[in-house]
Amino acid sequence: MEFYNLQSVLRRHRNAVVFAALVSIVAGLDLLLNPPEPGRVEILSLPFIVGAALLLAIVFWPEIQKATPETIEETLGHRFLHRVTLEGKLIPFLPLVGLAIIGLDVAYNAFISPAPTLMIHDSVAIMFGLSLVVYPFIPQRFDRERDFVVLFFFCLVAILVAPLLIMQVIRGNLDNAVNVYSSTMLAPELQALLRVFGIPASLMTDPSSGAPGLEFLTQTRQPITVVISTACSGIYSFSIFASAFTAFILTEFKRVDKRVWSLLILGFVASYFANLLRMAIIVATGYFSDTTQGALNSMLIAHSNAGWLIFLGWISLFWLLMYRFLFPRTVPDMPAVKKEARCALCAEPLSPTIPGTMCQCGTMYHMTCAQEKKACPKCNRTFMWHEAQVEPQT
């Protein structure tokens, strides 16, 4: 299939392409910031992000090329950033702000932090700083894309980094900060969900880390203890989803109506229950094992693989529902094609990206379809390839 044919097919199904790209980007970011197996980050995450970027580039490149400052829509996110930067006056200074954020984070870990190691929240802060550094240098025709990136990391800092840093100051370290969330919002609820599934479990607290956990007996009466550490809490995956969805809403809509608010709240609540379901599945793999070692091995495998797969499945379902209820099936930004401007051979509409030709009798065809015929099926005239190309009718 030639490139322009592929592009035409993808543009006719733009919502589906954007849906697939969003799922891939969110899954890639989750694997990048919260990898199940350290050392395999590039292998796991980069194909998701790079593949999604290529899909979006193929679909939106013609529109980006035609975009001008007059045609760029003022979305919620654009207006928000415009006001934050004092009507755009502070945009030239954003690289300095970004470098300051990166410098402060590095300096804190080098001279103040008791554990001078770049953690996940440090990576988020550095990425946010980098997005501010490059923001003024991105051409204005990529206005929506650069707004999405900056707003995504801004939301991630507001939802994940800032609360964790505040709790870290209060509780002493990052793990203790997450333990507060796990003790109140995860462990009791997980215990109740396991009992619904017929798995009796009791709450406990790990004396060495202070993290909450569960104790239960396998079907063969082997004792198992599960500690809900920071990596097991799911707080990073939830924050990535919440930030991506919020940034998407801000860069796609000019205003927020009741449907958007309802879906946003439903998404957050369902994401929370999806995280509980993920943890319940991990425990269940241990509960149905025959030996203690087998239970531990099964839970480790489920923790490394089932967690992000469940998250990816949940994200796919949520974005699919969002596109079903928030977006029309027709593509609003595609050039409208009259019903009669269709190829008489394949019955598909003529497209700006696929050359067309018209017979002397007035019947129109895609050039690629007509080349398979020696004469017009309507009037039996021999095709004359020097005739003028048909411009797409709008």
Tag the structure with descriptive keywords:
394 residues, mainly alpha, Herpes Virus-1, 3 domains, three-stranded antiparallel beta sheet, 6 strands, disordered C terminus
How would you sum up this structure, described in words?
With 394 residues, this protein is mainly α. The protein has three domains: 3-185 and 234-326, no CATH class; 191-224, no CATH class; 337-394, 2-Layer Sandwich (Herpes Virus-1), CATH 3.30.40. The protein has 13 helices and six strands. A three-stranded antiparallel β-sheet has the order 1-2-3. A three-stranded antiparallel β-sheet has the order 5-4-6. α1 crosses α3 (41-66) and α2 (14-33) runs antiparallel to α10. It is globular, with a radius of gyration of 27 Å. Residues 329-340 and 386-394 have low confidence and may be disordered.
Briefly say what this structure is:
By secondary structure, the protein is mostly helical.
Order of helices and strands: HHHHHHHHHEEEHHHEEHE
Number of domains: 3
Radius of gyration: 27 Å
Helix percent band: 55-70%
Give the number of helices.
13
Mean pLDDT: 75
**What structural class do the secondary elements suggest?**
mainly alpha
Cross-sheet strand order for the largest sheet:
1-2-3
| Bulk shape | globular
- CA-CA gap between termini: 26 Å
Largest sheet: 3 strands, antiparallel
Q: Strand fraction band?
A: 5-15%
What does the secondary structure layout of this molecule look like, with pairings?
Elements: H1 3-12, H2 14-33, H3 41-66, H4 76-84, H5 94-112, H6 120-134, H7 143-171, H8 174-185, H9 187-196, E1 201-205, E2 212-217, E3 223-227, H10 235-252, H11 258-287, H12 292-326, E4 356-358, E5 364-366, H13 367-370, E6 389-390
Antiparallel strand pairs: 1-2, 2-3, 4-5, 4-6
Helix pairs in contact: 1-3, 2-3, 2-10, 2-12, 5-6, 6-7, 7-8, 7-10, 9-11, 10-11, 11-12
